[in-house]
């Protein structure tokens, strides 16, 4: 695999846990705001940027966002809500399957439509199983998600095993951007203990304690989006809490 996967794997194998900052290009049009946000996130110690949004992202916004984020020197990864989020200015793309979608579009059609574009742009591909746990967020609605019952880690693990058997390298467990509650902490724990997948957790993470608990329970990478838009000053403490949790390599 390519440079971004290497960057992530090397950090993880040295025992470090990672933080990614999600930027929604649709919410970053005010002049100068994105540049400030990018610098604040970098100064807080974030390891990479994700670009994505479920609705309303234009290709021009995705291009502009990627160019601004790239100027920080950190990797920029497309986290596609749809084809319009794919930009040639990113370094890599999470090539995701929304595994608990009821729509064939999110299971295979979007990927088939995206593949030739990704080839043209030469983006590095990071294959990821993507599981949206709750049903009441934008991503769940748009992605026609079949929500999971509460507190059933064995179902999450079944999806993770399926992702691993298919050949995915990453497994992204998502509450949904702006979710009222983050995912239960046992979910990453089960996946980490029983697979070799790189475990990403996002959605509704707003405090250092929550981020720390999820990392202590097996999350390799924590993603936050809303916090940097609403309270950028809180980000540094979240990243610090994540970085405190080194595992022995
Ligand atoms: C990325 O959806 C997350 O998976 C971001 O969620 O906006 O709630 O931090 P927040």
Describe this structure in words.
There is one protein chain. With 249 residues, the protein is α/β, with parallel strands linked by helices. It has one domain: TIM Barrel (Alpha-Beta Barrel). The protein has ten helices and eight strands. It has helices at 3-13, 33-44, 59-70, 104-121, 138-142, 153-166, 186-194, 208-216, 226-230, 235-243; strands at 18-23, 48-51, 76-78, 92-98, 124-132, 170-174, 198-202, 221-224. Strands 1-2-3-4-5-6-7-8 form an eight-stranded parallel beta barrel, surrounded by seven helices. α8 (208-216) links the parallel β7 and β8 (221-224). α6 (153-166) packs parallel to α7. The longest helix has 18 residues, at 104-121. It is globular and about 45 Å long. The protein binds SN-glycerol-1-phosphate.
Briefly summarize what is shown.
The protein contains ten helices and eight strands. With 249 residues, it is of the alpha/beta class.
How many H/I helices?
A: 10
CATH superfamily: FMN-linked oxidoreductases
Total strands: the figure is 8
User: What is the share of helical residues?
Assistant: 40-55%
Proper CATH architecture: Alpha-Beta Barrel
The CATH class is identified as Alpha Beta
Bound molecules: SN-glycerol-1-phosphate
Shape: globular
Low-confidence spans: pLDDT under 50, at least 5 residues?
Answer: none
Q: Hey, roughly how much beta strand do the residues contain?
A: 15-25%
- Residue-averaged pLDDT, rounded? 95
Distance between the termini: 21 Å
Any idea what the radius of gyration is?
A: 16 Å
CATH topology: TIM Barrel
């Amino acid at each position: 695999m390519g440079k971004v996967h290497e960057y992530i794997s090397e950090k993880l194998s040295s025992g470090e846990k990672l933080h990614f900052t999600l930027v929604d290009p649709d919410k970053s049009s005010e002049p100068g705001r994105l540049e400030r946000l990018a610098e604040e996130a970098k100064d807080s110690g974030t390891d990479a940027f994700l670009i994505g949004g479920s609705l309303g992202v234009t290709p021009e916004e995705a291009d502009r966002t990627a160019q601004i984020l790239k100027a920080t020197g950190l990797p920029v990864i497309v986290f596609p809500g749809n084809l319009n989020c794919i930009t040639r200015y990113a370094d890599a793309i999470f090539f995701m399957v929304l595994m608990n979608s009821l729509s064939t579009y999110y299971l295979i059609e979007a990927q088939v439509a995206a593949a030739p574009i990704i080839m043209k742009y030469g983006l590095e591909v990071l294959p990821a199983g993507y599981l949206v746990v709750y049903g009441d967020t934008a991503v769940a609605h748009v992605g026609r998600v079949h929500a999971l019952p509460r507190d059933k880690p064995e179902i999450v693990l079944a999806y993770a095993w399926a992702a691993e058997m298919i050949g995915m390298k990453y497994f992204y467990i998502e509450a949904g951007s702006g979710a009222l509650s983050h995912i239960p902490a046992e979910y990453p724990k089960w996946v980490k203990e029983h697979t070799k997948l790189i475990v990403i957790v996002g959605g509704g993470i707003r405090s250092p304690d929550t981020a720390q608990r999820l990392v202590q329970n097996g999350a390799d990478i924590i993603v936050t989006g809303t916090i940097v838009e609403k309270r950028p000053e809180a980000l540094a403490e979240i990243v610090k809490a994540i970085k405190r949790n080194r595992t022995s390599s």
